[in-house]
User: Which sequence fits this backbone?
């Protein structure tokens, strides 16, 4: 039977609770304990697929096609397990399931209530993941902070779990923030005491408190939290802000969290082996020569909107012993006359995924710039559409080629809906989602990057390359580096007469790992790293 660790947050959000959860996964896995992770999101959306990335951050896609919170990306990167739809639970899913059961008559005669009907539905999601994953430990993060109205049923459900599975099979971990007061130069514990009180009010006594802070946490503060919040002294775990998220498992391990969890849950653990992780973090923290990459996107005001892209770039750069110097360019800024100046120092240009017409012309300009100046270019999903539109405009000598997503009446819809997508009316969960096979074409750049002939990659889009234009663009120098196995869908495009201009219809960023960069990102940085650009210093000749 699986054991459970429930993680709640206190005081404020955005203190890195998701990274902490992922890191607990890492330190348990380093003891050969099998883990799975689930995120409970209190909002009423069924999934974040219809939410703006500028508000909510990236939508992470699992292999089985669930559109999920970006925390799942961190879980996957940290425990190196490909999660499924079962790892993502929202209030919207829970309520629609309960109401569907009510309409079907499953509760005939009953009055449907938050307790027990909603909480039972929630608990079934916990046990379903435990049963399917067969993990020794299932870590469950409750999104938001204690006290949020929407989060109450989730907290009630995790409270009930203590009686359902027994006190010894469950741990409650509370992640909190210790704010720093500049005037008195001290860290304050009162907000933590209040959030623990709030937890206790609903019947949950935390076993472990992880204290986030921008400043070192003294022994006196730990004593105070231990006393007021009634947790063991060694169960107050400080987590100061660190330079890279990948350091968090090492900090938690150093503070003894791994052993504490093993003891409290009586787990069968092997000797900890974090040496590979340690080595990667040491490498990450060593100063390295930067590669200048321009990320041209629509949602750059919120960096979290491209979380996995940024991580994949970081993994790829580390492989080449380089650092990433990422310039975030709002694509609309490229629509003016002076667009070239914004791209002049870029050694590589990346156009990530996105939806809607805003900023598209700026992205197309970035693709033109990359093509004409032979700057490495990586297009991800929308970035492939942009590359195809740009090349078609060049080949056809017309400004009209477009995607029918942005111009429904274009005479050259080089990107278009498939007939089966045209009939779909609902927006939620109706895209081409999740893993699909892609047959690589021999001697393409993509095939040489992957070093294999068939790959599976994660998709999230409605529009596709329009085959009507396939031959014409091919003749002009576009290479189709990967196709669906039936040959019908173009999955990868590249330009023959360009050092490295490659785009894919899928999202390779989701599969990249620290120490195992995605091949397309790896080769993109490989092509970009030695390009000399404005402001770069050419290597000095060695003196005789
Ligand atoms: N908007 C495009 C489509 O729906 C691209 C989607 C994406 O980049 N994820 O096909």
Assistant:
């Amino acid at each position: 039977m699986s054991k459970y660790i429930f993680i709640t947050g206190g005081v404020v959000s955005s203190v890195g609770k998701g990274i902490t959860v992922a890191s607990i996964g890492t330190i348990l896995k380093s003891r050969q304990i099998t883990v799975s992770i689930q995120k409970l999101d209190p909002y009423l959306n069924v999934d974040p697929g219809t939410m703006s990335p500028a508000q909510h951050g990236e939508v992470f896609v699992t292999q089985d096609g669930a559109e999920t919170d970006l925390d799942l990306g961190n879980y996957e990167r940290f425990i190196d397990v490909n999660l499924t739809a079962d790892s993502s639970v929202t209030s919207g899913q829970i309520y629609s399931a309960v109401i569907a059961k009510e309409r079907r008559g499953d509760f005939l005669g009953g009055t449907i209530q938050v307790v027990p009907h909603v909480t039972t539905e929630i608990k079934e999601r916990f046990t379903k993941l435990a049963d399917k994953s067969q993990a020794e430990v299932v870590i469950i993060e409750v999104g938001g902070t204690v006290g949020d109205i929407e989060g109450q049923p989730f907290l009630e459900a995790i409270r009930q779990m203590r009686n359902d599975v027994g006190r010894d099979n469950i741990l409650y971990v509370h992640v909190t923030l210790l704010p720093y007061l500049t005037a008195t130069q001290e860290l304050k514990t009162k907000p933590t005491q209040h959030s623990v009180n709030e937890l206790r009010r609903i019947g949950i006594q935390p076993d472990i408190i992880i204290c986030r802070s921008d400043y070192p946490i003294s022994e006196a503060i730990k004593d105070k939290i231990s006393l007021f919040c009634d947790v063991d002294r060694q169960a107050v775990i400080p987590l100061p802000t660190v330079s890279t998220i990948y350091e968090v498992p090492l900090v938690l391990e150093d503070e003894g969290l791994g052993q504490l969890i093993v003891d409290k849950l009586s787990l069968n653990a092997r000797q900890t082996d974090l040496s590979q992780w340690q080595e990667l973090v040491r490498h990450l923290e060593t100063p390295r020569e930067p590669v200048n990459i321009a990320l041209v996107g629509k949602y750059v005001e919120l960096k979290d909107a491209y979380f996995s892209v940024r991580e994949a770039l970081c993994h790829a750069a580390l492989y080449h012993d380089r650092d990433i110097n990422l310039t975030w360019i709002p694509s609309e800024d490229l629509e003016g006359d002076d667009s070239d100046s914004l791209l002049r120092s870029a050694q590589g240009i990346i156009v990530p995924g996105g939806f809607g017409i805003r900023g598209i012309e700026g992205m197309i300009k970035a693709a033109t710039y990359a093509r004409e100046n032979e700057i490495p270019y990586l297009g991800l999903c929308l970035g492939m559409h942009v590359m195809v539109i740009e090349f078609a405009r060049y080949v056809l000598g017309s400004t009209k080629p477009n995607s029918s997503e942005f111009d429904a009446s274009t005479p050259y819809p080089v990107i278009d809906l498939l007939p089966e997508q045209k009939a779909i009316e609902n927006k939620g969960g109706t895209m081409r989602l999740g893993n699909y096979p892609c047959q690589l074409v021999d001697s393409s750049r993509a095939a040489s990057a992957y070093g294999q002939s068939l790959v599976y990659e994660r998709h999230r889009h409605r529009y596709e390359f329009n085959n009507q234009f396939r031959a014409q663009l091919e003749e002009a120098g576009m290479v189709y580096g990967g196709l669906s196995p039936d040959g019908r869908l173009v999955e990868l495009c590249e330009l023959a007469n360009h050092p490295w201009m490659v785009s894919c219809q899928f999202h390779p960023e989701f599969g990249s790992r620290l120490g195992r960069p995605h091949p397309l990102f790896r080769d993109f940085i490989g092509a970009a790293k030695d390009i000399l650009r404005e402001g770069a210093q050419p290597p000095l000749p060695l003196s005789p």
Residues 353-355, 381-382, 405, 460-463 surround glutamine (CB under 6 Å).
